[in-house]
Structure formats: C-alpha cells, structure tokens
Design brief:
homodimer; 561 residues; Metallo-beta-lactamase, Chain A; Ubiquitin-like (UB roll); 3 domains; seven-stranded mixed β-sheet; 15 helices; 30% helix; globular
C-alpha cells in the first residue's frame, strides 16, 4: 500500500473507529497515537526519542513527523497525555504548533507538560486541562476514562475509550506493582469490572513482552538499596531516573534509616523533586543538604543523588566520575549505585563510566550486582494478568520494537485473544472484526536541528556524515574574462589529516595539481563552470586517493571576474 | 610522572628486567607489550582495536602509537605473536615498518600474520619465523618457551620468559577448556612444573576476572548448537567469529548429524577455513555447497555460515537481514543463530538486526536463549586454578578495562600473590621485589585514515566532529586593490539544513548579510584579511544562531585581485 501523505486523503468510513499509530510502534520511544471516529480525532501522547548511532550527527532529539495531520485542523479535538515520561510528553512543546488542540492530563503530568510548553514559549496559547485520576470526560463522540496504573513515574494512566459502541483500553505504560510506595495502587477492581462489561480491543505496552515473570516492586528495590547503602562506611552516591518519584522516596527513607543526609546534584532531579512535591508526593522527603555544605558533613553521613544514570556526558554522574564536578570530588572507598537499567545503546558509555570510577577505587553497584532497580513495564505474567482481567477480543501491541510486539501478540493469542501487529502509519479499523489495517498514512521522524524540526532524511543532514567521514577540501579558482587563472588557486582543508606529508606540503601539492589541470584543460572545459568543477573534482579525488587513500568531500568554486 | 617521549631517554638499570605495556592495559584491544633486559627488547603482540563512539568519525581501525620506540632500532630483537586474534596480530602490517624486527609465532598464527604482511606489501622485507608449540628459543638474553593454552582460536600460547634470573609467564589469551574439540589440550603438566620450579611474575588476561565460575567448553557449545539446529525444520543460518575453528568444526559435525550441508557466506569465513585447513585443522569439515547451488537444496538441508556476528553493516549477516544478499533470501520460519557474544558497544546494532529478522518471522537464537556461545577467556575459577598451578610471587593484570584488572588483582591477592595494576606506558621493573613502576613512557593511539596512521588527537580528526555536528558554511569574497567587493559574495552550505526558510532563501539572506558587513566595515578591517574574516565569522555566527539556533563551522576566504 502506498501511504497517503495526508490523513484527510484516506477514504474513511463513517461510524468506524480508527486507530493510527504515528510513533512508538516498532520502536521504544516517541509515542504518538491517534483515534478517530466520524472525522473527529484525539491524539494520545506526543513523545520524543533520542538519537542513536543511526541518527545523522548533530541531532539529539527526535519527534514523530505530524505532517500527515496538517489538514485535520479543528477536527483534532484533544491531546491526551497518559504520563510524564519524555517518550510520551517530550514533544508537546515541539509539535503543539502543528496540532493546536487542548491538552488533557492529570496533575503531575500537567506540571511536566507545563514546563515544556513554557520552554517553547507556548503557555499562553495552549489550553492545558488537569484531569483527576479515575475521571471520565467526553470529547466529541469519545467517552474517555482515566484508569490508575503503576509505573516508574507517578500517575501513569490507561485510557478507556468508549465510542461507536466499542470499548477500547489504551494501556499507556504500566506494571502491576503491589507496593508502589508513592502514588495510588493500580485500579485492579476497575480493570476487572471493565473486563466483565466487555472490552473489544486493548492497545498496549510491549516493552517487556519477551521477559518472563513479574517486573518486581519498588519495595524490592527499596530493600535492595537499603541493603547496599547500610553496608557502606563512606560516601554513597546514587543515580537514577529523575522522574522515578518512588525511587526518590525510598532513598529519602533509606537516608533517615542509615543516618545519612541527602544532597542533590543535577538540575533535572531538582525539577522533578519540586514537581513531585507540588503534586503531593515526596511528603516525607528529608530536607536537603546544599552541595556547598557537604564539606561540613562526615562522608559516612552523605547520600548524594546525581543525575545522569545513562552516562550522559554533561550530567552530574559523568562529571563526578571524571572528577570535574564543581561541588564534589568522589574518593576511594566511596560507593556509586546505578539504580537504573542500561538503556540499549548506552552500554559502552556506561561501562566506561564504571571503569573510570573503579580506577579511582570507587565501588560500583549496578542492577547486575544487587536488586537496585526494577523495570516499569509489564513482564509476561503481568500481561497475562491484564488479559485475564480485561478479556479483550483483540490485542494490538504497541510501545516496542518488532520482536517485543511479536512476543506480545503471541502471548495474547495463547490467552485466547486475536492479535494484530502494526507499524507506524497503519490506519487500523477497530470496528472491523477482527481489526485490520485499512490504509497507510505517511509517518516519519523529525530531528531538532538548532530550533528547527527537519526530516531525518534531509539531504543536508546526510551530507554531514560524508563531511564527518572524510572531512572536506575547498578549491577556489578565480578566472578572468579569458578564463585565465587570476592569482593562485585557493586550497583549504577541514577535517583532512595530512599524515606524514604535513599540512602545508599537502596544500602546495594540491595547488600545483589544480594549476596543472587548468593549464591542460580545453577551452571548452575552461568556459563551463560545471565542466571545470567536475574535472577538478575528478582529478583531485583520484590524486588524493592515490597519495593517501582518502576521499574528502570537495567544494569547488569557480569565480569569474 | 611526566612520560618520556622516547623509551631510550628513560633511565634504565642494567641487569633489570623491564615490562612496558603500550596497548591493552586499561582496555580490551590493541595488545602491545615490551620486555627489555640490558637494553635488548622483545615485543609481545601487535594488535589493533576498533573504533567506538569516542573515536573521531571516519576512523575504523586503531593501533598503538609506537613512536616512543623509534630510537630502539636494532635493540628490538624480536616480535612474538601469542595468537592470531586481531587484537594481538592485527597491527603487524601497519606497525612493522616502525618496528623492523623478525616475527616469531606458531603456524596458524603465522598464516594470519603472513596475510596481513602481504596486504601491507611487506612480505619480502619481514623475516617471519614459524615456531612449534612447546618450543624454546633464545633471543639475546631471553629464553622463551611457548606453552599451549586453549582459547577461542587455535594455537593460543602463553610465553614463559627466563631472563636475568627471573621466570615470567605472559599468559596471552586463554581459558581452560577440557574439550577444546580442535587443537591440543592446555599444557597443565608444564604449567604445574613451572609452578614447582618457581614463577616470579605472571602477566595475564583479565577479560573475565569479574565473572564467577568457569568459561565453559566448546563441547557445551557444540551440544547447545546441536540441540537448537536439530529442532529446526527449515533453513538454519549461524553466524560466529570466523577465527573460531572449534566452533566451525562443531558446525561441520552438526551439519552431518542433522542431514544438512554447509554453505559459507562472507570472505573472512573462507579465509579462516582455508587457514585452518592449511594448518591441519578442520580435517573433517564437510565439502561446501556453493551459494549459487543453494536453490537445488531443500531448505531443511541448508546450514548457512555467515560472517558478521557483531552486526557489521557490510558483512553477510546484516545483508541477509536487510534482504540485500545477492546469493540468498532468508524467509519466514528460517532460524538465525548468533553463536557469539555481543561485544560491548554493539548491543543496539545487534538488537536492530534481531528486530529486523523477527519482523520477517525469522526465529533468532542468541546466547541469551540457548548455550550457543562460550567465552574464550578465563573466569574466576580458571584464574584461581592458574595461580594455584603457577604459584607466582606477583600477578600483573593486563588485557582488560580497569575494573577487570582491579578484580583480577584482588583475586590474585586473595590467593596469596602480590599484585600490581598498570596502565599503558608504565615502565615496570620486574627485578624489583615486588615489581614497581619506575617511569612513564609516552603511549597513545593512532587511527588509520586512508593509508596513513594519524594520532587520534590530530586536530583535523577533531575538526570532523565540528563539521559533523553543525555542517559548514563557506563564504568567499573577492576584493579589488581598493578593497571593494568584486561581484557577489559566494555562499556555499554543506550539511546545514535550511529548515523552513529553504536553501536558496538562506543563501540569499547570508549573501545580503555579508554585503552589509563589507559595506559597514572600516577601511582598517577591509585592509586586513584576518580582521575581515574574523568580523564576517562573528557576525554570521550571531545571525545564524539567532535565526535558526545553529552554529556551522565557517570557512571565510578573502581573495584579493
């Protein structure tokens, strides 16, 4: 199927409920899903993803491409955010101008969304509505209910959508944590009641669908951290995801129980602690010791919380490891706890960090050594619990790479549900029984380049790779009216190592080579900028490859005066 | 300590045995070690390492920097290669011209070294001597014995060095595999005899020093592979390290036992199979089915061996996954086995490959699912066995990142040895009791750029990062004798996305901006190329940051006619 560039161009059947994932299916990150009925649409989550080794250089933040929605206009009636993780709310500031619909979420999530909209200078344009957990609201033909679930951040919600005679549960991100420590219990009674009332479709989290068992509880993690920290005699430094309020609460409690006081290093931890407190969490979190007062506190009483659990070079943890943090120098016999998972792709960066710490005789504890982290996503037994509770006719896995979605679909089928695996851009009719892909809608990725969002396929972004791999050679020749060289050819090199020859000698060789090319060029070539450029490029590419085995990008400029 | 740029400048004591690691200590890769006595030196291993995310773009192969040895001349009397892995022999073709000493190794290793020297056009210059396993040779004051060990490649040897009244065992890479399937058993009797005779120092492999237990046997791996492959009904494709001859032998045997025939895809597998056979290995390896005959063979009888177990984009496995291999298209219900570890840093690349295969409904089996790989390096129980056998006074961990070397040192200390952890460039006296670092010698890394070796600190290589992150903007102005602009400023952009503005509009804006700068510049600025360049750069940097939040590298050329 050829994708429709505009959702508006796809043939839509009235009285049919459509589901359209535009981000997060076939990937973990940038969740962006749409539901439509009688040409009224709601968006669920507007997330970002981060660059990896396939991303063009210079791009760090990636958003879904919303351009297929540009003709929707006011038919997009609401944007609902299920919870405050970056892959669900992170793009709200970047994409809202293309979506322009009111935003709905619960308080904690709203605080985070508000910060992002503020950073984008949009606060006065966006209607941001705070919904209560468990609340039910109408949006055009949609009746939507927020259902509390547990996750690794407060206030993660499933949405139950009732529309066109169907009941659809969009799970968002979840786990079944019997002891979440912060926030409410997952609403198992409501989930079972929905199952009894009849659920047509569940669209849900596939992250851990290949992992057996249960994801574990924040209580296990509290116990593991207490065990590690209570054995330490010197300074302990813990890094975890800043948004994991339960983890922060555990660390607050452990600080009290082990006679330590907490110091926070890193902006995002301060932000999330403030956001949590403003929304009624972290009520018993101890008063902080400011970094500048650490010198007055014995090391055995210090518990440092640092940002940067993924080894981000500019975050507190990496700066501490490099000995470059302005407030604190870690010392031998200190202990650093990574209370976090290793996000795939960050392994080598983190191993380097562990190594740097260990070279300073600092003990490193990761989830490989002790129970200092639990995942926030449902493992297979939790998925099984959910499908036994909801008894859906059909499961559509999202929020996962392909293998996670396939494992999720197979599990659902074993439990007696039908299953449909989808990709970003699949326009799925949920009214059809079973649901099926009716059309393809254009989907893609935009990269944040400076302050612009640029398609990742942009030619200029890919040109950067060529510049990166081989550097670049600039040749400028000035020709007079008779196509005779004026002065010397100008040669400049950027990012081209000159090897044993040396920079000046290489420039001289290239200057001489260009002069020779011009001297031997026919008048036909000399009179055509294109032909001359092409000849210089070809000859120099050949020479450089022969001399040094390199192929820099070339910029040949012919200036005629 | 400030490092000596030349080993020859360090104060050396006569009758003292020195050890100098110049690669492989504090890292896994590019092993390069020196031993010296009365100013006669031998090098042990000359390996490469591969680029990671910290390497400047465009560099794939990295070697140790041998420049601190350049004054050694004929005092470097031998290069000994312990085994044929890339991190031990891979740099021989690149660094031999800087070392110029005869090379000694056993047959299989010599075949690989010969290929590398041939590729570098050095075969007629290098004296390559084949040594027998268990042989003893004299090199100046050194008596050196080759001691057979098991590893993941045939003919991995420890070296026992007797010199200056000391006995030093340099382990190379090893494990204790009771059933190595190919090649000889490790020489436990000789190791125990050496222990009884008295070993002063062991310098050895730290790779798995953090891993409890034993590394396992190739026989376990054979059984695991047989178990997986015998359950498959359709095509099976296995990828593993090409140099793991035992693994290839197992697969040959499994092919026969499961009624399959083997087809090889990928040049390095062909090379290593040929090398193995030429040295007496793989004697029972079945005859191959050429790729072009695969169509005549039922899928249930196909066993494909493919290169690219680390997800290398140009190797057979990745091309098969992408459906771009010219000889074979993998289909649903085929099975792909990764009979290899995931080298840290390759996780994301491999996960993508698994995902691509799973999206085609191809079953993926990795060491996480079945015993289809065993490590080639000693785990803690094997290290314990070795130190109980050799009973050394001192252990110096090498071949590991810092945390591996620290764990190795701690284990050795628990076993009653003294231990010294070193870094590349540490000049260690082994005669001192206990050994100690006497001086620092310059060490570093060279990157292969085209056909030149360039220090990784080369300014041009780092310039590539800036080009990659922001692209580049070239501005050329031609001025007449009175510093008046001739024609229009020439603006060229490479790797700069123009965002919503569009490329031509951005060029026009920049042209106009440069004209304005020139129009308003003082005659002092106009008369100085440097001042004019600096002013244009500053103003355009400011404008681009304001307009688009970007900071491309700038190349400003002022041409006067």
């Amino acid at each position: 199927m050829k994708p429709f560039a505009n959702l508006g161009d796809a043939p839509l059947t009235p009285e049919t409920l459509y589901f359209l994932p535009l981000g997060g299916s076939g990937e973990i990150g940038m969740n962006f899903n749409l539901y439509g009925f009688n040409d009224q649409w709601i968006a669920v989550d507007v997330g970002i993803t981060f660059a990896d080794d396939t991303t063009p250089p210079g791009i760090e933040v990636i958003t879904p491409d919303p351009s297929s929605l540009k003709t929707l206009g006011e038919r997009l009636i609401a944007i609902i955010i299920t919870h405050a993780h970056e892959d669900h709310v992170g793009a709200i500031g970047y994409l809202w101008p293309a979506l322009k619909a009111p935003v709905y979420c619960t308080g904690f999530t709203a605080s985070v969304a508000e910060r992002k909209l503020g950073e984008a200078g949009l606060l006065d344009q966006v209607a941001l509505h705070r919904v209560l957990p468990g609340e039910r609201r109408s949006f055009g033909p949609f009746e939507i209910e927020w259902i509390a679930l547990t996750h690794s951040i407060p206030e993660s919600h499933a949405l139950c959508l009732e529309v066109g005679g169907l009941r659809v549960v969009h799970t968002g991100d979840w786990k079944l944590d019997p002891n979440p420590l912060e926030g409410v219990h997952y609403d198992d009674r409501r989930l079972m009641a929905l199952g009894d009332a009849g659920v047509d479709v569940v669209i849900g989290d596939s992250t851990n669908a290949t992992v057996d068992g249960w994801s574990g509880s924040e209580l296990d993690c509290y116990r593991g951290l207490l065990d590690v920290i209570s054995q330490e005699q010197q300074r302990v430094c813990v890094t975890c995801f800043s948004s994991n309020t339960a983890r922060l609460a555990s660390l607050g409690r452990i600080a009290r129980e082990t006679g330590r006081r907490i110091t926070i290093l890193g902006r995002s931890l301060f932000q999330y602690v403030a956001t949590a407190k403003a929304n009624g969490y972290l009520r018993e979190f101890p008063e902080l010791v400011p970094p500048e007062d650490l010198d007055y506190l014995p090391k055995s009483e210090q518990l440092i919380l640092a940002t940067g659990s993924q080894g981000e070079a500019r975050a507190a943890m990496a700066r501490l490891a490099r000995g470059e943090h302005h407030s604190l120098v870690l010392e031998a016999d200190d202990c650093v706890v990574f209370s976090s998972k290793v996000i795939p792709g960050n392994e080598k960066k983190l191993f380097r960090l562990y190594d740097l710490l260990s070279s300073k005789r600092i003990r490193v504890v990761t989830e490989a050594e002790a129970c200092v982290h639990v995942s926030g996503h449902p493992c297979r037994d939790e998925l099984t619990w959910m499908y036994r509770a909801l008894q859906p006719n059909t499961v559509i896995p999202v929020h996962g790479e392909h293998r996670h979605m396939v494992a999720h679909a197979e599990l659902a089928q074993q439990l007696g549900c039908s299953a449909l695996t989808v990709q970003n851009g699949d326009l799925v009719s949920l009214t059809t029984s079973p649901p099926r892909v009716e059309a393809k809608i254009a989907s893609g990725r935009l990269g944040l380049s400076g302050t612009s969002l640029v398609p990742l396929t942009d030619r200029a972004l890919n040109e950067r790779r060529a510049l990166a791999l081989g550097g670049m050679l600039s040749i400028t020749v000035v020709l007079d009216k008779k196509s005779r060289l004026v002065g010397q050819p100008q040669i400049e090199l950027m990012g081209v190592p000159s090897g044993e020859l040396g920079g000046e000698a290489l420039k001289a060789e290239l200057t001489f080579a260009v002069e020779e090319i011009l001297a031997e060029a026919s008048s036909r070539v000399l009179q055509s900028d294109d032909a001359l450029r092409e000849m210089i490029q070809r000859e120099l590419a050949h020479s450089l490859h022969q001399w040094m085995g390199i192929r820099p990008r070339q910029l040949v400029q012919v200036i005629r005066i």
